[in-house]
Amino acid sequence: MNRILSVELRAITKAVLFSLVLGLISAFVIYFSSLSEELLPALGKGILILSIFLAACQVSKHYGSKGLIRGLSIGMVFFIIMLIATFIFNPSLIALKTFVYTLLLCLMAGGLGGILGIGLNGN
């Protein structure tokens, strides 16, 4: 199975699943605790950054070269997946300011994860 799917596709799939699981966990924690719901946007951004960072790190570590480019591409693909999901489920959430901000977050997290992945390669 691992040879059928590329490293990039596996990393993106893991990142999306990781984001969904962390999103559900944070929603349950906020719902069943006395924490304010105003924490959700910050938690969402943190989950987004962490997921993309780990996926980009995984891909760059596997290849061992071109970490920044690979990380930026992972960030861009993740952003496109989120954009498509937003178009499908709630297109009214798309505004230019949030579009650009989220794109920059995705690219930053991917680039940094890609650079760190090269350092973790060990070759």
TrEMBL record:
Q: Which UniProt keywords apply?
A: Membrane, Transmembrane, Transmembrane helix
One family from Pfam that matches here is DUF3792
Highest rank taxon of the organism: Bacteria
Return the InterPro entries for the record. DUF3792_TM
**Would the keyword Cytoplasm turn up in this protein's UniProt record?**
no
- What residue intervals traverse the membrane? 12-33, 39-59, 71-93, 99-120
Q: What is this protein called?
A: TIGR04086 family membrane protein
